[in-house]
Write a sequence for this structure.
């Protein structure tokens, strides 16, 4: 057996001086994983301990197979919301049917991701634009917040969208439970302070920024422990909803029976969960990889996340992916390799074996506050404002996706996001940038006559096309050319500069043939310049070069010099 064949590359290259940082990072991440795991399981409508199960073996799987040294895999808010939405018709929350559905989602999404990784489809990370993903996350965050106001305030209402939930809550706001609301709002205020102000305060008190950041990130764990102790100390268990007894011990591996009917129900949402989780995870991993000038392998990410989801399902838990806050803490705490994730998994095993009893008196309103605080940080209004100013089409796609999630729910939001991504692409391609160009004096360069002081010939009209030619933009190109010709009296030659054209489909070729025929009847030469090799091969295969009433020039300067 070849040495190192089944050993991760990072392990072979591991250095002893990495160990202190990896141990510290693992400890801090575990303290963050516990409240997040409990909270996101509740968000998915599942027993809280499943959030801890989802924070164990998935860490091991990704640590061995992923490519990022700092990405921390586990439950996240958006994926948990997608799980709850996908299982809305599969038994009541917390029921065996609901749990079986969550396991199925994890297994199916994991299989999809591994198959994509084996097929080397890492480019799927770019199948949705970042503004659309941001819009989806923002809309999901608003939906999460609306849904968690119920347990936060102790009000029982129903609603399928953020709007219906908020309206129902407003109508029954006077029915809030005093102790529940007080605990929840106090916890939310402390969590907000921990996220927004604590780090600055600690720095002002003389604590190093590195430690101030880590301490502020541990606020959720402090709030969870304090609320749990207070509830037990003052006997509030009978007055507020609490987590209740959590089973101790490691998760029992489950191999669910294949249910064709359930698979038919879950495969599409599982695919969406896997792809959304992969895109978000890769975006997070790439952000931290660029900071440390490390290379990320998208195909390895697919396999690593796929294996993490499969092991989460086999643990009886739900889908997972990389989390931004945990990854940021992992990196800031000194993680240098995936060993930090493996150590965190070992620490999580210790929590499951010896410490689950600590959280039995944890109020559900505190978990709701934890979820709301995390979701609030996902709302990206700044990005929306920037994209709206910079690129109105991208801004519209981002806003439309967010509104789709808020008004119509997760499934509709995903569909709207995919549609708007494709619509934006088609809209841009159908409106190619074209320009009449002239020669920059004293050079062989040609630039847009609207933006540069250039020389033009009254007999030669030169138009540059900055897009591939296909059925979606053929008419727009033809209209631009004909309008330019009508406005240029005395033109004897038309030159199309094709330096940005990499392909011409059959519809666009028909358009060029029609232009060629019309110009030929008017005794106007029709020429091409700077045509790429593959495009020339296409045209020659169709004998277009023989039908062309003109020449194909190597450069625009050559065409201008020869025809002027």
């Amino acid at each position: 057996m070849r040495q190192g064949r089944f050993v991760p590359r990072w392990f072979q290259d591991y250095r002893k001086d990495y160990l202190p940082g990896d141990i510290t990072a693992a400890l801090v991440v575990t303290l963050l994983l516990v409240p997040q795991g409990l909270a996101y399981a509740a968000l998915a409508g599942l027993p809280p301990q499943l959030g801890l199960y989802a924070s164990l073996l998935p860490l091991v799987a990704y640590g061995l197979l992923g490519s990022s040294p700092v990405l921390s895999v586990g439950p996240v808010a958006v994926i948990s919301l997608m799980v709850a939405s996908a299982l809305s018709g599969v038994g009541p929350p917390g029921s065996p049917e609901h749990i079986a559905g969550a396991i199925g989602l994890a297994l199916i999404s994991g299989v999809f991701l591994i198959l994509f990784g084996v097929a080397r489809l890492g480019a799927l990370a770019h199948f949705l634009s970042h503004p659309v993903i941001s819009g989806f996350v923002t809309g999901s965050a608003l939906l999460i917040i609306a849904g968690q106001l119920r347990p936060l305030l102790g009000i029982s209402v129903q609603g399928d969208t953020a709007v219906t939930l908020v309206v129902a809550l407003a109508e029954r706001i006077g029915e809030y439970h005093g102790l529940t609301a007080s605990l929840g709002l106090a916890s939310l205020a402390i969590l907000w302070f921990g996220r927004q102000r604590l780090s600055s305060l600690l720095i002002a008190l003389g604590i190093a920024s590195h430690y101030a950041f880590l301490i502020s990130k541990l606020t959720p764990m402090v709030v969870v422990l304090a609320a749990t102790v207070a509830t037990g100390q003052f006997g509030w268990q009978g007055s507020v909803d609490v987590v209740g007894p959590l089973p101790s011990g490691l998760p029992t591996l489950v191999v669910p029976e294949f249910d064709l009917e359930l698979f038919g129900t879950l495969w599409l949402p599982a695919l969406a969960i896997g792809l959304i989780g992969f895109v978000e995870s890769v975006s997070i991993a790439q952000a931290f990889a660029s900071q440390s000038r490390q290379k990320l392998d998208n195909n390895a990410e697919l396999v690593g996340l796929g294996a993490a989801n499969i092991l989460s399902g086999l643990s009886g838990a739900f889908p997972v992916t990389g989390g931004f806050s945990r990854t940021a803490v992992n990196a800031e705490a000194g993680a240098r390799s995936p060993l930090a994730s493996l150590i965190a998994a070992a620490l999580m095993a210790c929590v499951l074996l010896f410490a689950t009893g600590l959280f039995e008196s944890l109020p559900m309103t505190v978990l709701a506050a934890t979820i709301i605080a995390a979701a609030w940080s996902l709302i990206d209004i700044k990005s929306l404002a920037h994209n709206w100013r910079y690129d109105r089409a991208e801004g519209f796609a981002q806003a439309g996706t967010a509104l789709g999630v808020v008004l119509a729910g997760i499934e509709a939001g995903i569909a709207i996001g995919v549609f708007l991504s494709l619509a934006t692409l088609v809209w841009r391609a159908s409106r190619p940038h074209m320009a009449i160009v002239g020669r920059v004096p004293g050079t062989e360069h040609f630039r847009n006559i609207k933006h540069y002081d250039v020389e033009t010939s009254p007999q030669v009209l030169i138009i540059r096309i900055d897009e591939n030619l296909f059925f979606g933009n053929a008419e727009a190109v033809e209209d631009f050319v004909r309008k330019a010709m009508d406005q240029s009296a005395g033109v004897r030659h038309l030159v199309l500069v094709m330096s940005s054209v990499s392909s011409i489909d059959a519809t666009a070729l028909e358009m060029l043939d029609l232009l060629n025929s019309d110009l030929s009847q008017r005794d106007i030469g029709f020429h091409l310049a700077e045509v790429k090799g593959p495009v020339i091969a296409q045209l020659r295969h169709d004998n277009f070069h023989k039908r062309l009433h003109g020449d194909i020039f190597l450069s625009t300067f050559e065409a201008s010099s020869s025809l002027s």
User: Anything to note?
Assistant: The chain has 25 helices and eight strands. Residues 478 and 515 are 8 Å apart (CA to CA). The chain has a mean pLDDT of 91. The first helix runs from residue 9 to 12.
